[in-house]
Design goal:
Number of helices: 2
Radius of gyration: 22 Å
Strand content: 15-25%
Number of strands: 6
Length: 169
């Protein structure tokens, strides 16, 4: 892992989760085997004796300060830390969701026991902060939970749960 081109030392990894979202300009995954092995040797003291990563890649975080980990915590009158933090950076997860566009192609006799009913990682809300989606329930009955997570362009995080019940037909 590198921040503004500076490798993060093993003892400083715990600080990465406390970097303010507002301090982060961008994040990318760099798949460069040579560079990843160079950083690995620099960060982990066991190198070259310890095993190199099987799928080497670099998680690169770029801050507005451009000063590496030490510049990721801008000084303010209140504290060195800003209250909005990102505990992790991760790529968008992808899940299989059954397509129900053409009802003539659906085998209605086959049981549908999906636990994950729908997955939309890139919904954009309208100017009022609202969005709509349509999904089909599975054959499972009982309480269902809809979980909505989001992040604003300013880096603020949102989370909401809606619980509904499905009765047997």
């Amino acid at each position: 892992m590198v921040i503004d081109g500076y490798p993060v030392r093993l003892e400083d990894y715990r600080l990465i989760g406390t970097i303010s979202v507002s301090a982060v300009k961008s994040v990318e995954i760099i798949r460069n085997k040579t560079k990843a092995h160079t950083y690995h040797s620099e960060v982990f003291p066991c190198a070259p004796k310890c095993m190199l990563p099987q799928f080497p890649a670099i998680l690169a975080i770029y801050t507005y300060s451009g000063k590496g980990l030490s510049g990721a915590f801008p000084k303010s009158k209140k504290t060195n830390f800003i209250n909005d933090v990102a505990p992790q950076y991760s790529p968008i997860r992808e899940y299989y969701v059954r397509e129900y566009h053409d009802s003539s192609q659906i085998d209605w006799s086959a049981p549908d026991r999906r636990a994950l009913l729908d997955w939309h990682p890139n919904i954009v809300t309208n100017k009022d902060g609202q969005a709509k989606t349509i999904f089909f329930n599975s054959d499972l009955t009982g309480k269902m939970v809809i979980i909505c997570e989001g992040i604003t362009f300013e880096g603020k995080i949102g989370y909401s749960e809606v619980i509904y019940e499905v009765d047997a037909p």
